[in-house]
Design goal:
The chain is of the alpha+beta class and 252 residues long. A hairpin with a 7-residue loop joins strand 3 and strand 4. The chain contains 6 helices and 9 strands. 39% of the residues lie in helices and 23% in strands. It is elongated and about 70 Å long. The chain folds into 2 domains: 129 residues, no CATH class; 105 residues, no CATH class.
């Protein structure tokens, strides 16, 4: 984890060496959440790119391992949930921290073990269901993901897993491995002489949950966002220069 107070104090020191009023705690917390999510979502893009780049297998493996280590912090395994036997579905929105599904196993009534279900797109599912040889069975189940409701974002969508074959009115359960979203960071404080004083004992205090090596990236990204808000080109320029340096160091 990364201390939110260390990041906050560094951001303030760079953004304004004399005054603390340029970036309020409320603004910082908004920037912090955006910066953390930007870095978190970049992991998956970078991992995909690393695995597609031909070349030195050792370097590729090293970068792959580093990214996997950073992502593993958010890995939740064998999360149990009931499957609705009336609809053969699991409602993913019950997991408020859900971000990306890794694997799904299901247990049918009268079967002793959980069986891994294969994920299919809606187009693939149609082909499977119409094929006598590829049709899903209790030993070889499949599932598809869909959003119900007219929503534009995952946060507001009703994300469902639909299983085939169905459960014929019997009870069933699933074990899901997934990547959870990092919780929102929150720099908490009390006001002393109209100035915010850090309070790590607040109930809603939350450090960054990213890998400890991401502290510098967090500072840079927050400064980029803050520079735009306070209309200070020097802050934005400094953050951009530091970002370039960091990228060059990672590639060297």
């Amino acid at each position: 984890m990364v201390s939110i107070n260390k990041v906050y104090q560094t951001v303030l020191a760079v953004a304004n060496k004399e005054q603390r009023g340029y970036i309020t705690p409320q603004e910082f917390n908004l920037f912090a959440d955006q910066a953390q999510m930007d870095i978190f979502e970049q992991y998956f893009y970078d991992l995909n790119q690393v695995r597609r780049i031909p070349g030195n297998s050792t370097n590729t493996a090293d970068h792959d391992d580093i990214l996997e280590e950073k992502i593993s912090i958010f890995h939740k395994s064998d999360v149990n949930t009931a499957i609705s036997y009336s609809s053969d579905e699991v409602l993913m929105n019950q997991f408020t921290d859900y971000y990306k599904i890794l694997s799904v196993r299901v247990k049918y009534t009268n079967f002793a073990d959980f069986v891994e279900a294969e994920k299919l797109s809606s187009n693939e599912l149609t082909k499977y269901l119409s094929s006598p040889l590829a049709k899903p069975t209790f030993d070889r189940p499949v599932y598809t993901i869909y959003n119900s409701g007219q929503y534009s974002t995952r946060a507001n969508s009703t994300v469902r897993l639909k299983f085939y074959p169905g459960f014929s009115g019997s009870t069933a359960s699933a074990k899901i491995d997934y990547i959870n979203k990092p919780p929102k960071p929150n720099w908490t404080y009390i006001a002393v002489n109209e100035k915010p004083l850090y309070n790590s004992n607040a109930a809603d205090h939350m450090d960054f949950t990213l890998h400890a090596s991401e502290q510098k990236k967090l500072v840079i990204k927050i400064l980029q966002l803050a520079g735009i808000t306070i209309k200070d080109y020097n802050v934005t320029q400094f953050a951009n220069q530091e970002e370039v340096k960091t990228i060059q160091q990672q590639k060297s």
